[in-house]
Amino acid sequence: MSVLFTPIEVKGIRLRNRVAMPPMVTLNADERGCVTDTVIEHYARPARAGTGLVIVEATAVDERGRVWAGGLGAFSDEHVPGLARLAAAIKAEGAAAGIQLVHGGPQGDLELPGNDRVGPSEVDPPRGGPKPRALAVAEILAIEERFAEAAQRCVRAGFDMVEVHGAHDYLLDSFLTIQTNRREDEYGREAAGRMRMMVETCRKVKATVGEAGIVDCRFSLFNKAPGELGVADLTALVSALAEAGVDVLHISTDGVMKDAFGTGKSIGRLVRGMCGRPVIAAGGLGDPADAERAVAEGHADIAAIGNAMYGDPDWTEKARAALGG
């Protein structure tokens, strides 16, 4: 039997297989970030095809930190009824329902009413556009609370998992990155300071969610400069996230099975060995045989299928047939 199609249990929640749909933005919400029928069908379909875990796209935790017009929101109680419909639709098809929470930070869309482009330091963002305003410490702490409040709304709506988005140059990742974090206070300088906001945010989300759901954190290394985040720093980050109560780590890679840091091990194998937490890994697994190998060889506990599933919502059903699962 295919290893990819064996179940896994995480914090008492059983996933019917090791296939995940990772969060990928659709821009189908309404002008306030509320769920629409189009959003529901987009996520129900891969669940209907047999996917084990469906993670809803990056969802704004702060009205002033939105990234896109048409993006989902969880920054107000008005979002809860639609989010509840969405979670119920995913779970009705047999999948576990996850949702990713984000603050746009240096990638916030200034054309959205009330938006504020902010970051650790006033430097050019990696993806271009106006420089962000540097956050004061009190503002950092307030945004951490916005993540926790949004997580509480999502759990109340029925989601099994909330994912803290610490990747891809958004706010938490911008603190982790040397090029964008030039701070000289406790949220900068050394690696421990740069990772502080991500860790504190996860700790607050975990304190809010408690045992009501899975807390996940997604981070990326491929967008870091050479030597910026080495094995020692990665070990410190992973250990700190585990200590903060994160239940699952979601690694965004430029190749799940590639050698990481010249160690002869993939990033997934390294992280799994550092903390003993289940690992979701994304990057280059669109071929079912590659996804099978990633799980079978221990590069990931759960294989995230991004572009391939976005292009073909029935990917999981077809992969099961191809692998004889």
In CATH, what is the class?
Answer: Alpha Beta
CATH superfamily: Aldolase class I
The arrangement of helices and strands along the chain is: EEEHEHEEEHEHHHEHEHEHEHH
Decide which structural class fits the backbone: alpha/beta
**Residues in β-strands, percent:** 15-25%
The backbone outline, from C-alpha atoms, is: globular
* CATH fold title: TIM Barrel
State the strand order across the main sheet. Answer: 3-4-5-8-9-10-11-12
Tell me the number of structural domains. 1
Q: Could you tell me the mean pLDDT?
A: 96
**Could you tell me the number of beta strands?**
12
Distance between the termini: 6 Å
Instruction: Characterize the largest beta sheet: strand count, sense, and whether it forms a barrel.
Output: 8 strands, parallel, barrel
Helical region count?
A: 11
State Rg: 18 Å
CATH architecture: Alpha-Beta Barrel
Helix amount: 25-40%
Note down, in words, how this protein is organized.
With 325 residues, this protein is of the alpha/beta class. It has one domain (3-323): Aldolase class I (TIM Barrel). Helices cover 35% and strands 16% of the residues. Strands 3-4-5-8-9-10-11-12 form an 8-stranded parallel β-barrel, surrounded by 6 helices. A two-stranded antiparallel sheet has the order 1-2. A two-stranded parallel sheet has the order 6-7. β10, α8 and β11 form a beta-alpha-beta unit. The longest helix has 20 residues, at 137-156. The chain starts with 7 loop residues before the first strand and ends with a helix. The relative contact order is 0.14.
